[in-house]
Amino acid sequence: xxxxxxxxxPPAFGDGFRxxxxxxxxxxxxxxxxxxxGVAAACMVAGAGGLYARAALRLGDVERTEVSSxxxxxxxxxxxxxxxxxxxxxxxxPGRSDTIMLARFIPGSGTASLLSLPRDLMLTDPATGQPQRxxxxxxxxxxxxxxxxxxxxxxxxxxxxxxxxxxxxxxVDQVGGIHVQAAAPLRDRSxxxxxxTPGCVELDGEQALxxxxxxxxxxxxxxxxxxxxxxxxxxxxxNQRAVxxxxxxxLESRPDPFTANQLADWLVDNVTVDDALSVAxxxxxxxxxxxxxxxxxxxxxxxxxxxxxxxxxxAIDTERAPAVIxxxxxxxxxxxxxxxxxLPAEPPGAQVTAC
Amino acid sequence: MRRTTxxxxxxxxxxxxxxxxxxxxxxxxxxxxxxxxDLAQEALARAYLRWRKVAAYDEAWVARVTTNxxxxxxxxxxxxxxxxxxxxxFGRFPAPAAGADPLDRIExxxxxxxxxxxxxxAVALRYLADLPEADVAAWLGCSVGTVKTHTHRxxxxxxxxxxxxxxxxx
Lengths: 355, 170
Prior knowledge:
The complex is a heterodimer. Chain A is an alpha+beta fold. In chain A, strand 5 and strand 6 (131-133) form a beta hairpin. Helices cover 38% and strands 24% of the residues of chain A.
């Protein structure tokens, strides 16, 4: 109909054009944040979470990373975050994901659930169609990581939050230490963990980091001998969730009015979020973190089996995973984690929980 | 669950199609390369920001937003000076591309602006974006028959206008 009005030689729409589009989108968002949205969010949460308007406005400055297919979630709807703990000693380096965890907050029931994805899990790389280890995917491209998790694990991801080691240590220290317990003394000579007494102990940032990084956990038996935990990385992901719950518990037990602001400041200084996470959503997240009952958090590791082509890798356990994922999505109690075939159980006393 | 996983489209994968579509719609209305690239970028940036809502009907969304942006742009540069020779000189626009009559564009935009919203969207999606009738119907939330009615009336208005131009020109 209007073909005669067409450009006879339309330009190519390559990567340069796409980058310009994304840059413009970011500029637009910043403008929106600087305008009404930021103020509205600030007013909205100023009372509820004890968040001061200044801190709420500052939330607009949080660092952003480009992830496609994330989007804002209306208040009151369940929201799922992909949490990445980055091993990044050198600021500016891309960093490897040591922790890959899904967190879902369900406002209706006031519960939350955590699902750890072992870093040795093999997924199909959406870019190449080849099998790829989960943490190698996360290193390269967050959009591909999100797409792979959504399509192959079957959990819709609304947002991505990235924290590096330094950020994690500073959170634990700002909370004033976190509290965990195990039935026996624990150590990890490679990560530097040493918990010499059984029962509830307080960990500072460095010790909490040593615990979440520990892949060579050893448990002291009543005889005095140290026994290695054969679960290795799977023990680590369980400990990471225990630390997450402990952090929530210790945040919640400090209801002084400065906490929300400290948390907002910490977030702006240490966390990278996807570019679709709105300021109102960040404010809601802070409020959730401060008010959530840590006892209501359901947690599990994604059920896995040995990956057939390589015994050092893992594949999704297609029999047991669906029930665990369904429970994760509903915030329902997770069915008992079955032992992984071919893997010896943990030594007594190795279980770490919040206290 | 809010949506099904696995079949969700990714912005990266749809980018090339949407950029070309946005540019085509913009160029048909603006006739200027730089302006059209700018409008296509703006429409895509907006789509990117609310991709979750847009993804399911991304082409219709981009076409509609580009059309509205172009109409807005024309309104802003309303001072289109008709020179003595009868060839319109665009306010601050560079010379329009050769081969296409710029009058077509001015009238097209004028008629689009004068149409009721539903008719305008139907015409823009069907004839500026060249989307199939079924897609236009799905986006407008009406039947294919209603799309035909809307586009027919919209085009009739355009033809009446064209005749008027030709009468004036002769």
